[in-house]
Amino acid sequence: MPLVIGLVFGLCALYFAVWAAAAALMWLILPALCILVPWAVVAGALMAAAIALLTLTGHREPPETITPDLVKAGRDGKLPKPRAAEPFGRDWAWPSYFSAQAKVDLAQVWRTNLRVLAQGWRWIRRITARGWPARIAVLLFGAPVWLAASTGALAATAAIVGTGGLVLFALWVCWSIPVVVLRTGDQLLRKVRNADAGCQACYHVNTLPAFACPVCERLHWDVRPGRLGGLWRRCGCGTRLPTAVVRAASQGTPRCRRCREPLRDGAAVVSDIRLPVFGPVSAGKTRLVYTGLLALRDGVAADGGALEFADPESRQTFDHAVALIGAGGDTTKTPTGELPHAITANLVNGRRRALLHLFDAAGEYYADREDNTALEFLDHAQGLVLVIDPFSVPRVRDQLSGGESEKLIAMASPAAEEPERVYRVTSQRLRDYGVATGKQRLAVVVVKTDLLAGSAPARDLAPGRVREWLVEAGLDNLVLSAERDFGEVRYFAVASLSGIQAGDPRSPAGPFGWLVSGAGFRLWSGSASAGLPSHEGRTSQEPVEKEQEKTG
C-alpha cells in the first residue's frame, strides 16, 4: 500500500512538473522569445554594420593593404594575371582601388562578421558543457537568440557586401571609361605615327618603352592606364606619375626595355624611321650618309622644316665629317669590329615630327654571313640603302683606258668586294631572320659619279637610266634579285658632294628622301619622287620574265 501511494504521488508530481514546464514555455519563454528574437535580428544587423565600419576604418581586424611590394611579388589572387607573359612582372606601384583593394576590403568585412558569429557559437558550446541547468538555459534562450542575431548579421553583411559591390562596380565603370579612352587613344596615336622606339645602342625596337621614376629611379615597364593607375599612377615611393606613353614621355625620358639606356627625345611618341646603309668596304657608305644628311638638312630648311641632331654624338660626328668633305678630304673609315651607334636626327615638318636613325656599319660585316648576325638593326628597318661603287664593277674598270685610268682608280679607292656578293649575303640574312622584305623599300645607289664623269663608262649613266646601266654593266642578276626580294626598288646615281641641293637628280639626299617618304613622313613637296623620273622604280609584283629574256 505505501508503494502505491508513493507511485501516485510521484505521478502527480511529474504531472504538475510537466504542466508547469509547459505553462512556463507557453506563457513565459515563448512570449519572451517572440519579443527577443526580432530585437536580436535587429541587434545582429546593427552589430554587422558596426563590425563592417570598424573593419574598414582599421579598428578591428583591418583588411590587408595591397602594397607595391605585393604587386611586384605577384601575390596570387590580389590582381588578375597579366594577359601576356611579362618578363619584368608588374611594376612597383600602388594599384588602383578598384583593381585589388576593393575586393580585399569587401572580403575582409565578410570574414570578420563570420568570425564574430563563430565566436558566439563557440561560447554557447562551452556553456552547454557545464551541466544540465546551463544546457537547458542555453537551449531555451541563448541558442534561439544568437541564431536570430546570426541571421540578422548574415543578412546585413550580405546586404553591405552586395550593395558595396554594386556601388563599387558603378564607380569602376565611371572610372574605366576615361581610362579606356586614354589607353586606346594613346595606342592608336602611336600606331598611326609608327612611333615604335628604336634603341640607338642595342637596336631593340621598343613598342612599349620603360620610364624611370624621377625620385627613386625605379623603372616602370608598362605605364599604360590600367590596374596600376588610371589617369595617374603612384610609384611605390609615393611619387605621382602620368600614365600613357605620350603623357609619360612629355615629363620623362623613355628607356630601352633591353639595355635600359635612355632613348632619344621624342622616342615612342613621334614617327621612328630606321634606315641601314650597307655595301662593301670602301664603297662610299659613310660619305653618302653625311652628304645625304647635309643635303636633307638644307632641303628641309628651304621648305620651312628643320633637321636637327638628337644627341651631341651625332652632331659632333656629322660636323666633323662635313668639315672633312668640305676640305676635300675623305671621311673616316667606319671602325671594324665595332657595332655602330645610330646617327639620329629630328625631322620637323609643320606639326609633324620624326626620328631618323641611319645605321652605317663597317663593310666587313656584310662580306660574310656569320659576321652580320649581330646587325639587328637590319631586321627592324623600314627601308635599306645598297651602295654600289662603280669602280668595283669589272666591266667598268675594263672600259677605263688611258694614262688617267690608274690615277682615277687610285683616287676612287674601289670597294674590295663585288656588290652582288654583299647583296646576296645581306638578303640571305634577312630571309633567315624572317624579315618581310616584300613590304620594304630598297634604294640602290651608284656613288662616286663625280669621279666617273667624263669617262667612257659614265656616258650612259644618267638619271632615269641607272637600272639599265647596271644591267649593261653586268649586274643584271643583282637587279633582278633585288626586284624579286623587295616590295619596291628605286635606282639612284649620286655624287656624294656637299653643295648639291636636294632637288638635283644627283643629290645624295634622293635615296633618303624616298625611303623617308615610304615610311610615312613627307619631308617636302614632291619628296616621293625626289626629282627622279617615275620609271626608275620597280616593284616586286612586276613580272621579271621579260627582263630575264632581255638580259639572257
Automatic annotation (TrEMBL):
UniProt keyword annotation of Transmembrane present: yes
Double-GTPase domain ranges (all copies): 275-495
TM spans (from-to): 7-30, 36-56, 132-149, 155-182
Keyword Transmembrane: yes
Record keywords: Membrane, Transmembrane, Transmembrane helix
Biased composition (Basic and acidic residues): 535-552
Region (Disordered): 529-552
Protein known as: Double-GTPase 2 domain-containing protein
Organism: Amycolatopsis halotolerans
